[in-house]
């Protein structure tokens, strides 16, 4: 290898190192942006999950009100409408304080 060749090789290597350095900086910037976006999306997802959970809870709260007539009808037909194991079981002719309490509250 003569001196000219050696110098040319050094210059070429320097150019390649500069290119590599620029690529690395660009990649680092992209990684930071992706991590930031990931954090933002995680926060947004958690927020949406909370919104959905709140809506589901509200729908569950609404339903018993809407089905008040159905519960009253079931009770008139002789069935328990009180929460727990008795729900849907036949009252066998006797009134149930828990059932009546539910109907009074609605
Ligand atoms: Zn009952």
Protein architecture, described:
Helices cover about 75% and strands about 0% of the residues. The chain is mainly α. The chain has one domain. The mean pLDDT is about 85. Zinc ion binds next to helix 3.
Gist of the model:
The chain has helices at residues 3-66, 68-76, 97-104. With 106 residues, the chain is an all-alpha fold.
- Write the element-wise H/E pattern from the N-terminal end onward: HHH
User: DSSP helix count?
Assistant: 3
The overall strand count is 0
Q: How many angstroms separate the termini?
A: 98 Å
Describe the oligomeric state of these chains in a short phrase: single chain
Hetero groups = zinc ion
Globally, the shape reads rod-shaped
Strand content: under 5%
List keywords for this structure.
single chain, 106 residues, mainly alpha, 3 helices
Topology:
Blueprint: H1 3-66, H2 68-76, H3 97-104
Bound molecules: zinc ion.
